[in-house]
Amino acid sequence: MRYVLVPAVTLAATASLAVPAQGRAANPYERGPAPTEASVTAQRGPFAVSQQTLDGIGYDHGTVYYPTTTSAGTFGAVVVTPGFTNGQRAVAHYGPRIASQGFVVMTLQTHSVYDRPDSRATQMLAALDHLVHRSALRSRIDPARLALIGYSMGGGGVLRAAERRPSLRAAIALAPWSRDRTWPDNRPPALVITADGDTVAPSDGMGETFYNSMIRVPDKAFLELGNADHRVPLTDDTRIFTYSISWLKRFVDDDTRYSRFLCPGPATGTSAVSRYQATCPMD
After folding, report:
1. Residue 185 appears among annotated catalytic residues
2. Active site (annotated) includes residue 152
3. Helix, strand, coil percentages for the chain (3-state, nearest 5)
């Protein structure tokens, strides 16, 4: 088990860690050009995106954002789930931004905005199954490359869903809230993002505790944002997208070109990032 406290370096300084393309084996899942700091922080990626509404089977409904191209092969799929009292509109900004990087993304509307994490876990897995096996977009999706993102109770739901379905390629929990504090049976690569000013799901009591309890997760990272509170994932925060997109690319697409944005990681103790830990290297 590799717990590494990442040194304080800037994201730009990691550029020298990139592996030359000619030194890597061909990866059939790479989608899009080689990443740069500008590309992972951009509002939109290289793919044009369309959207459609999907009526729920095991959940209420969802909006699916997907690359319009049919010549780039299949894409990994991601379900994004909101938190307590939030509808899918609260996380709608994740759809087009992540899809434009080469993913099929559903923002999920749960049965009730008051659903607890376990119920959200059940619904997000049902949404993945519907998207992959029954939706009109199923031919665009690789069923072996699936991931979940969730905010607050949706983040707690991601942890539960990852426990139930170890075949997931990535799990991203944003300001996760759960009454369960330990997740020793989880397996999928996990990114936990918290905020230093979060009093609803504080890092010390929840996010960092969840991260430390994942003793069987071979690849994981913990990011605490500076000058932020519980609601920061509901905003179009570039820090969240930089690391979430890099995480999805690295583990859903097996794209090691993105490892340099995760290891060694951002400078810590700054106004932007309070703390960062990761199991490095991730190549």
Report:
1. no
2. yes
3. 30, 25, 45
